[in-house]
Amino acid sequence: MAKKGAACGNAIMGLPWILRVLLAIFLDCVLGICRFIDGIFQGKILKIIIGFLWIFYGLAIGWILDIVFMLLGMRPLFL
User: Fold this and answer.
1) How many domains does the chain have?
2) Model-wide pTM > 0.90
3) Is 43 left (phi over 0), alpha (psi -120 to 50) or beta?
4) What does the alpha-carbon distance between residue 79 and residue 12 come to, in Å, rounded to a whole number?
5) What is the pLDDT of residue 3?
6) What is the per-residue pLDDT for 78?
7) Is 35 contained in some domain?
8) E strand or H helix at 9, and its extent?
9) Of 4, 20, 34, 61, which residue is 20 to 30 A from 55 by alpha carbon distance?
């Protein structure tokens, strides 16, 4: 059974790896929104803050981390 509120992150991880990489390359703000939504539903303040910051500031460096993690087959940070 999945964690409560982690549906958005699990939906992203359920995609084929190539779609996840393309999503991280072209629409990394979607992953930030998923972090933010999952943080709200889980009640985790740190995840909410990271999700919010990822939407605006994570586009500079965060998308590189997301791409690397997805290419290695790992779950991206805080997703």
Assistant:
1) 1
2) no
3) left
4) 9
5) 56
6) 76
7) yes
8) helix 7-13
9) 4
DSSP secondary structure of 12-78: HHTS-HHHHHHHHHH-HHHHHHHHHHHHHHHT-HHHHHHHHHHHHTHHHHHHHHHHHHHHTTPPPTT
Kind and range of the H or E element at 11? helix 7-13
Q: Tens of pLDDT along 8-17?
A: 888 888 889 8
User: Looking at the domain assignment, is residue 78 inside a domain?
Assistant: no
List the structure tokens of 3: 């964690």
Residue 2 DSSP label: P
Q: Containing domain of residue 48, as a range?
A: 7-71
Tell me the per-residue pLDDT of 15-60, one tens digit each, with 9 for 90 and over. Answer: 898 998 898 888 888 888 888 998 999 898 998 998 898 888 877 7
